[in-house]
Amino acid sequence: MGVADKTLNKMFGEAFEAYGNELFRHCALRMRDRERALELTQECFLRSMQYAKKGGEIRDPRPFLYKTLRNLIIDEYRKRGIVSLEKMAEDAQAVVDDLLPPDESNTLERAVERHEGATALEALQKLPEPYREAIVLRYIDQLSPGEIADIVGESENAVSVRIHRGLKKLRAILEPDHE
Questions:
Q1: The dihedral sign for the CA sequence 151, 156, 159, 160
Q2: Which Pfam families match (predicted)?
Q3: What b-and-e string marks burial along 29-47, b requiring 16 or more CB atoms within 10 Å of the CB?
Q4: Which of 15, 25, 135, 151 could cysteine-pair with 67, CB 3.0–4.6 Å?
Q5: Which residues contact 14 (CB under 8 A, 6 or more apart)?
Q6: Is the domain covering 1-81 a CATH 3.40.30 domain?
């Protein structure tokens, strides 16, 4: 193993420590399949490392990894085709359960959080994909509009507008009488 390989291994080891969990959560939320999300997250790091080993430039690993993962998720959606609504609902509840902290001290509070989380996730799934993706990247993954722009290949202004409009649509779904 040469010096360049050791440097790459170190860089990707650090990137995995820093971003592995958030990439997995992002993928689990988008895929609604925990096992497949884990596989795609691992594949994301593998493909990114292969790209770097071939001489590809990675300026900022976080947006690059998200973009790679996004492409893998799109490929997976294309392979899957149509999924039943019942399966989506079951998977969505499992994702909400995974995202909640494992605190069992107050089961009523946890049940309310689970219900609110499932309701929010259900509403999020009703949004058109571009809005849903922008909101997930911004508020769940906590990426900046600039990082999101790098991932989706659009201007920062277009991303900011999409987030704003997506939030408006989400609010209309969650609070239909509020308009």
A1: positive
A2: Sigma70_r2, Sigma70_r4_2
A3: bbbbbbebbeebbebbbee
A4: 151
A5: none
A6: no
